[in-house]
Amino acid sequence: MRLAVFTDIHANRQAFEACLDHARARGAERMICLGDYVGYGADPEWTVETVMGLVESGGLAVRGNHDSAIGTPSESMNAEGQAVIEWTRGRLSAAQRRFLAELPFVEQEEDRLYVHSEASNPNRWRYVQNATDAARSIISTEARVSFCGHIHRPALYSMSSTAKITSFIPTADVPVQLSGSRQWLAVVGSVGQPRDGNPAAAFAMFDTETREISYCRVPYDIEAAAMRIRENGLPHWLADRLSVGR
Amino acid sequence: MAKHSVQPGEVIDGFTVGECVHSGGMATLWSVTRPDLATPLLMKIPRVSEGEDPAAIVSFEMEQMILPRLSGPHVPACHGTGDFAHQAYVVIEPIPGTTLYSRLGELPLPYEEARVIAWKIAVALADLHRQNVIHHDIKPSSIMFRPTGEAVLIDYGLSHHNQLPDLLQEEFRIPYGTAPYMAPERLLGVRDDPRGDLFSLGVLLYFFTTGVRPFGETETLRGMRRRLWRDPQPPRKLKADYPPWLQEIVLRCLEIEPVWRYPTASQLAFELAHPDQIKLTARSERLQRDPLSTVWRRRFNGNVSQSRGKADVAAQLDAGPIVAIALDTTEGSLALNEALRVTTQRILATLPSARLACLNVLKLGRVTIDRTLDEAGNNKHIDRLVALRHWASPLKLDESRLTVHVLEAIDPAAAILEFAEANHVDHIVIGARQSSLRRTLLGSVSAKVAAEAACTVTVVRPPRLDSLHEQESEDGNPAEARA
């Protein structure tokens, strides 16, 4: 089965639409969403509605820290991030807020694990920034392949049977076969707010038969997404950063 | 993880196992068949039982990832892989014959034979590097030849693919590979520089032409580290008749700093294909190793650059293309040749490691018997070479980056295309003839080259003159025609 994995959509409708189209065109059969559907962007209602639709039609979603903050104000979030969360809360319906509040932190199926931040302590929201962080996540699970997001920069880590960690910055659209002799942690780039210097929206595809992962980059109408942020009176720097991907 | 040993007659993913043809330290090789594949096949199975070196597994994983991505005559074709979750294997095309290792008893080889061998390996390396792979274990036992002559590089267990995870990056505390052939930067953990393969090829060429390994056979880390500061004996010191051009090539490959080696395997192949055109430097004449003062400076100042960003293999190759300029040196080509020079300057300005091959075709008559000398008794071939160098001199290009070639042919376009093919030219720059009468009668050389070349072609025309616009404008209004 071909899975499409989306994370850190951050209410960016233009980016999410472009990624969904791209994934469907590439034969995605199941949509996996790794959290942070809201925050930063100007289209939270549409985004949460879309994720709810994906889950209804057999997809899977876990919870991110921004989704959590809709129900429970977070201490770790900066003031401006918090301001956008307040604005978002007012936009979402009760049903949408309940959907976010009831999402699990982590999901597992077959030999795969899905989590927003990392697997060792999913509700601590720690970033996977390097091989040490990746090792902490990998050793906490039996899953052969874990998928996470949160850091907004794509990466691929592996741990051999002798506990050696490799790290790798994936090349867009070059598939990598995930060897069964090691455990893997696929850090998926952000749909709605990429921060690796490439402004194109990011997601990943994984084929459970061939065990090949592809990191995809999709150009989208950045100006329209930025305009929506400005129109809604959200901080301008949230609009500006989209075009530089930082 | 499967640990049972494979038995003849067993069927694995549709491949029927035949006899075991080789049993090595890291893997066993079996002949296998599959009903839908008529060619003979070889299945390589790693040794993965308890107590085996984990390196064997990791190397095998790398080979499994890399082999299916490779194509072309210089690699064994891959027909399937099996994951460690069930039975790990790769099925590849068997290459008939023996590896270059079988020639070790005959060393040193004649210079010309060694040059041809090294040229074939360099061509194969260029093809591999273009596929984003650095071999990292170039040595005689990794090299075979097809019956048609092309070198085939085998064994990708230590290789690095620039677009795939490098599973070997953290696996070993000491660099893993074949000590006598290993590039100095590998000892510092650098695995993403394709010029490491050029160093190994230099070791091989030195060994094959002198019978001696330039850095001995040391296997200790301490012994290997010496090559970070100590250069080898110049071959001419060992063999008085050693050709200077060959020493130039060998010592340039063996430069301690990667940046002093050839920028790309293609450029090394080009030099090996044209030994008479090699720009000889002080390297070619050396009879002594570097003075101790130089060696000490390297040793204690840490010359080989240690901290570097992630190297992009494709970008490195792109910066060092082979550019061929096709020139007409006859009368009346002045404006066009000036335009060609301007275009060439622009290309060179953006490509610091590019090398330039200036071509001129000496057209042979179909019927007449051509004479080497013209009516005034001058040698036409030499005259053309002089004219090409004269054209290139304003480019102020280092001579090691410039070659000139006069091709003798009946069909100029075919000659240019053949040269580009044989020398793996990346970019052809050619002028378009302006004289429409000649073009109508003879056909356009540039059009044929542009249509049939396997590489990028830039067709250059001299700046247009205003009078041309007026002629072309239907209503005779030049301003409108330019708009």
Describe the structure.
The complex is a heterodimer of chains A (246) and B (483). Chain A is α/β, with parallel strands linked by helices and 246 residues long. Chain A contains eight helices and twelve strands. Chain A has helices spanning 13-25, 44-56, 65-71, 79-91, 94-101, 131-139, 222-231, 236-244; strands at residues 2-6, 30-33, 60-61, 106-109, 112-115, 145-148, 155-159, 165-168, 176-177, 183-187, 201-207, 212-218. In chain A, the strands form two sheets. Chain A has a six-stranded mixed beta sheet. In chain A, strands 4-5-6-10-7-8 form a six-stranded mixed beta sheet, covered by helices on one side. In chain A, strand 4 and strand 5 (112-115) form a beta hairpin. With 483 residues, chain B is of the alpha/beta class. In chain B, the strands form four sheets. Chain B has a six-stranded antiparallel beta sheet. In chain B, strands 13-12-11-14-15 form a five-stranded parallel beta sheet, with helices on both faces. A two-stranded antiparallel sheet of chain B has the order 7-10. In chain B, 34% of the residues lie in helices and 17% in strands. In chain B, 37% of the residues are buried. The N and C termini of chain B lie far apart (72 Å). The chains are: A alpha/beta (246), B alpha/beta (483). Chain A binds chain B through residues 131, 156, 158, 160-162, 164-169, 171, 174, 176-177, 179-182, 211, and chain B through 1, 54, 57-58, 61, 64-65, 83-86, 88, 162-167, 169-171, 310.
